[in-house]
Amino acid sequence: MKDVTIVGATGAVGAELRAILADRGIEASGLRLFASSRSAGRSLEHRGESIAVESADGERIRAAFEASDTVFLAATAETSRRLAPIAVASSCVVIDNSSAFRDDPDCPLVVCGVNDAVLDGFTGPGVIANPNCSTIIALAAIAPLRRLGRLLRMTVCTYQAISGAGAAAMSELESQARAWAADEPLPTTTLGRQGVFNVFSHDSEVDADGVNREERKLETESRRILADPDLFVSSTCVRVPVLRAHSEAIHLEFDRAVDAEAARAILANAPGLEVVDDREGRRFPEPIHAAERDEVLVGRIRRDPGVPDGRGLAFFAAGDQLRKGAALNAVQIAEAIGGRGGHR
Amino acid sequence: MKDVTIVGATGAVGAELRAILADRGIEASGLRLFASSRSAGRSLEHRGESIAVESADGERIRAAFEASDTVFLAATAETSRRLAPIAVASSCVVIDNSSAFRDDPDCPLVVCGVNDAVLDGFTGPGVIANPNCSTIIALAAIAPLRRLGRLLRMTVCTYQAISGAGAAAMSELESQARAWAADEPLPTTTLGRQGVFNVFSHDSEVDADGVNREERKLETESRRILADPDLFVSSTCVRVPVLRAHSEAIHLEFDRAVDAEAARAILANAPGLEVVDDREGRRFPEPIHAAERDEVLVGRIRRDPGVPDGRGLAFFAAGDQLRKGAALNAVQIAEAIGGRGGHR
Fold first, then answer.
1. Residue numbers of chain A with a pLDDT score lower than 50
2. Angle between helices B12-23 and B328-337 (to 10 degrees)
3. What's the whole-model pTM score?
């Protein structure tokens, strides 16, 4: 990863990508930024220098792809479908944050720390799909626990931050809180409803079976990433008035009795996780403590009394939706393939 | 129910009890109000008249019990253990909102609309226990669904309002939002942490098995109320920054395949429930819409793809923690026993 293009550079995930790449030492001279024509024309600071944001709809994006080895797409699925083939034709490795390529068997779907091995066969140029944020956070914690036994079923109920709906939604949630405090009408242009002092079912499309798209992603992506097409996945995805870290209540069923202390030891030693499980002081993962952290926090680790024969395990996780849930995992993918991309 | 004493009259549940009794036509002349000595001395308005709040620690409470047929206890479990025997000795029917008597086989534990039949054998005076708020809201919706088949397992993840922690906690959550908007330090005296823009594990005690008291109540009370000691109950109880209605993501497993449309029809016809399930417009139960409503809202009704053989059903419920979750159910219990109490 030397020359990088970010599409969607002004959005919530784009901003986080820029911050992580700056930390990683990618200089402004090696970074090209694109956004929708609405956001193009702005200048963004990067490691002390200013970069002009260009329109992703224009012709100049082809030249940027030609000059890049790595492209991060952090815009809509539609934009990804349009631009990914152009970037791949320019010999780039494309890491796509949208859902566009997650079901494509030719595109690896990777949670770093979980199934990095699928990148071994990747010889780029090509597209690597970054999973859905809820899936990444859940699997970062669930995957290592498979050492306890064969995982038969996972039930995930989410407490999802507003950041997943984008930077404008985050800003509107803050505006709603200010309006509430001032006893003024709440702005609802972006969220379409009251978000502050409320929770609501995840705002993605609901299919004919009554399952929303976020829940379906958790199901299909988890099966693919864990390479287990028979895994049963139950989920309810819900938004809560939290700015940027998702929380998840996770109940697992294994094929044999599991021990909560063994689970705790596994989670404590797994990379990318931090156990926060102070029963005495009642301190457990909270999204405000996971925000702007690379680690996914896990706690409330216990045997689930609701599963027969001691085969159940439950825990609570909180992870930054924009970091491990999106931008950080994308950068980790780019780092994992290292020189194995197809760039010249 | 003609002459009523409320202990804990100034608290969140006490205030709701007063409002419901006022709606039911109980006049100030038939209502005696008690609270902790800290809150005693205040006067509260009731149907246009003023009632002085007396100290529950004083001797005058005995005279109040002597003059009452019905006593609502809405204070701590400790207060209930102390006062319930005195009220029963005065021939009162005691409806206790605390956890003090919920495991006592001599005290019926009742969700009205679910297991009212256990009151048939009640010949008072005596104590009737009002279940935990999360249990009431869950079972109001789960119980009628047992017509679909034998319920084997319920998994309940809660999104609980701050009202369950009392009036002071509600007020502090509002103060936190105002402080946040003013860019001032958040007050945390009552909650002990940031509640606004955060979620946190239910603040009850966690036992040696890692299960918190709220989750244990859901398990033991559900089994007792549904009269099924073999029912498996999984739960994770979490507080969210919502003022007064609890939401719950509920996943059920039956002994046979279940049909989501049949479930919807049952829920639509069940008393005390309202189906809010607009998939097209993405309008589902939200706590702000359940607040100050008697009905528990249910929606997101769907077959749970995470249970084998089509035996799973999932839905989302939201109910006012202070109404059906506490005060309303307590008043419904008093009404259900009608003249069958032991009062003179």
1. 342-344
2. 50
3. 0.96
